[in-house]
Amino acid sequence: MPTRTALDPFENLPHIEIVHLKDVVLHEDHDERRAERIVARLKDEEILRNPPVVAPIDGGRKYMVLDGANRTTALRLLGCRDALVQVVDYASPDVVLDTWDHLIAEMSGGHLLDQVRDIGGDLRLVEMTVDKIDDLLVRREILCAVTTMGDGRTWAVRQGLDLRSQVIYLNRIVAVYRGKVEIYRVDAEHIRNLARDDRRPTALIAFPRYTKEEIVSLTLADVKLPAGITRHLIGGRALRINLGLELLRSDMSLKNKNLQLRDIIRQKVLDKKVRFYREPTFLFDE
């Protein structure tokens, strides 16, 4: 987008831009079920509501998706040449990297553990207390932890290779249940309560935290984490841009597309349709 000036109404707005989709790379795999739902909605509405959030990497030659892997995948499946994105500085303290855990149902904990054991290699499952598991996850000494909800037993999954090999094994573990059951992303701090929950959930898979440097390194090596593990907390998210997909599909130059985008946003500002909420907000139409 053009350079902003002190009198520019864009000065305090998020950095919204249209970029070539071929330059947008994922640091994590997409979720097939979620991506399919987004494709169906985009076909019906022909509007992209919320832009994926990306950060420049590789000297600005690529944009790494921090949030929006499924939206990005849906745009590719729909044949869009370009993508609407919100660009942020990954080094900024306003971008915080955290971790999601996976809560699943419809697959027994015992069956899940058997499938993980069958992966083979140098994977080892060791039963431990939750307190010890928490410490090992923080220190990144285990790949993940599996808690079976019926009996509250927790198993550490160990594997001693380098980071890249660990991520490859993580993908194999998640592939055991991905696409077969619904995956619910839950906050790591709820692990203690969930371990005592013997209702519909059957298993909880807890993951360690990664650093931003590791995420960039894996992405540049074309090694993706499983879907729904990293959680980026980003201040000043841009929502409800509501851009028509025809602009993203067209053969128009990026320069002209971004000029059109700038006019669209300027008009929203003039019409007082842009609002900033400092307080946490619930959305009921995602």
UniProtKB/TrEMBL annotation:
Protein origin, superkingdom: Bacteria
Nucleotide-binding keyword on record: yes
Key words, A-Z: ATP-binding, Nucleotide-binding
Keyword ATP-binding: yes
GO terms of molecular function: ATP binding
Gene3D superfamilies: Conserved hypothetical protein from pyrococcus furiosus pfu- 392566-001, domain 2, Conserved hypothetical protein from pyrococcus furiosus pfu- 392566-001, ParB domain
InterPro entries: ParB/Sulfiredoxin_sf, SbnI-like_N, SerK/SbnI_C
Signal peptide segment: none
Protein name: ParB/Sulfiredoxin domain-containing protein
Organism field: Handelsmanbacteria sp. (strain RIFCSPLOWO2_12_FULL_64_10)
